[in-house]
Amino acid sequence: MASLFVLVYPDDRLRIKAEPVLQFNAQLKQEIKDLFETMYEDHGVGLAATQVNIHKRMFVMDCSENKSTPLCFINPEIIYSEGEALSEEGCLSFPGVYANVSRTAKIRVKYLNELGEAQERAFENLESMCVQHEIDHLNGITFIDHLSNLKRVRLLKKLQKQQRQAL
Ligand code: GNR
Ligand code: NI
């Protein structure tokens, strides 16, 4: 068991596009375990492999109140989208800053679970936002890429200020 170090903006490795998972072996199992441990320890509702410098198309998520619904998504694909929703997002790679992001309200996702079994599920509300946020990470995209230039500049200034104060 190991809690992993989460990459923080402006780390260039957050821009790497992850590769599909082809092998379900012991190493993958360990990486998934470490993703869950890191997500729970850092109090995130999701964590993409990209954020811990593992460039494989997988992420973990648990949006439940009592942290009782661990979900692992491997090679996820959004196969259906509907509606639009604006909600406040944060990201473990941008500690301490939050912004309203506009995304698709309802999605249907096809993915493999940790055993390599094909799954298909619909998501809405926080889970839908989180799945979209994590798939973005796997494509080297972060939530600030969804903001207007003005809002992005403001948020990054706030982040820099907090990072200076943390030194
Ligand atoms: O902890 C997180 N909260 C969150 C809130 C709204 C939409 C997405 C998220 S994901 C984020 C953890 C994270 O950075 N995942 O990549
Ligand atoms: Ni994130």
Q: Please report the first level of CATH classification, the CATH class.
A: Alpha Beta
CATH architecture level-2 label: Alpha-Beta Complex
What is the strand arrangement across the widest sheet? 1-2-3-6-7
- Encode the helix/strand succession as letters: HEEEEEEEHH
Bound molecules: ligand GNR, nickel (II) ion
Task: Tell me the overall shape.
Answer: globular
- Spans of 5+ residues with little confidence (pLDDT < 50)? none
Number of strands: 7
**What name goes with the CATH superfamily?**
Peptide deformylase
Estimate the strand proportion: 25-35%
Would you tell me the overall average pLDDT? 97
Short description:
This protein is α+β, with helices and mostly antiparallel strands and 167 residues long. The chain contains three helices and seven strands.
What are the main properties of this structure?
alpha+beta; 167 residues; 7 strands; 25% strand; two-stranded antiparallel sheet; binds nickel (II) ion
